[in-house]
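The aim of this short unit is practical: by the end, you should be able to scan a pair of folded records and say something sensible about each. We start with the first protein, listed as its amino acid sequence and then its structure tokens.
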Amino acid sequence: MRGKTVIVTGSTSGIGAALAGAFAGTGATVVLNGLGGAEEIEAARRTLAERHGVEVLYHGADMTRPEEISDLIASTERRFGAVDILVNNAGVQHTDRIEDFPPEKWDALIAINLTAVFHATAAALPLMKRKGWGRVINVASNHAFGGGVTKCAYVATKHAVLGLTKVTALETAGSGITCNAICPGWVKTPLVDAQIEARAARDGLDIEEATWRLLIEQQPSGRFTMFEQLGAAALFLASDAAANMTGSSITQDGGWTAL
């Protein structure tokens, strides 16, 4: 990926940080984005740059603000001359039954998990089309294929992201641009940790037992998908090996979708 510029939204922690690290490890210039304290973010940026000998920039665009998303894309192009790869990863979660789901939480999930994907993609595609090459990688979820109790907003956004992935792929087919989705099952992230802790408190379980029950209900392997595996999938989708793969999704779910 040397010579390529990659934007990864929501990349100051969790899956996004792992994807940014995977691209940096292959020589790409990386633009980070996400939440956190200024010192913590700067330390992560500096560490990534020094470890891999690449240029790493941080942009603090708020994914609920279209004008800031547009500036993320535009400022990257001004600084590095291109946006070659866009990884739409930023996401949030809230769980409640539909009748109890706070409208402001619904709006926040729609804005960050879905609408931000549209705005970032819409801003990046003209730059990719001028070069005749580009990769859009959307981090969806196995919840793009089925439902989940108390997850109405999250499930709705992930279904929609998969649909947007297909439309983007069709509109760019034959242009040198591809758009695909990565759909993980359970990954050990802060979002999942919160769900495990809530289950443990609700059912009177220790964390180990709550973790096992969470996994085995839907992920037959009984193992979390690892950050490194997600990074490898993203690198594959960005590579020439996947040049004729578009509108597709890669599931990494320990058998979840086989149930």
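Turning to the second protein, read its sequence before its tokens, just as you did above.
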Amino acid sequence: MPTYAYACKQCGHRFDAVQSFADPTLTECPECGGPLRKEYGSIGVTFNGSGFYRTDSRAGAKTAGGGSDASGSAPAPAPTSSKSEAKASPASTGS
């Protein structure tokens, strides 16, 4: 079950509550009876596995699918095989 953080709007009391997803949100402070608000903190997300690379989350990393990086420059052209160039262009062999 998830743990939710609450803070009282009136007295500032802060506490955590373990609640089910189906449980209603708490609305009354246990200290003073004032109104409560849920607090949301940031969470860290780590992607692990063979499909994720360390450079994927860095600024300037190239996007998947041949997109451009954060600086807006165009992606480098894909290298071609020397065998396909020789077959495709017989005039370039010097004969």
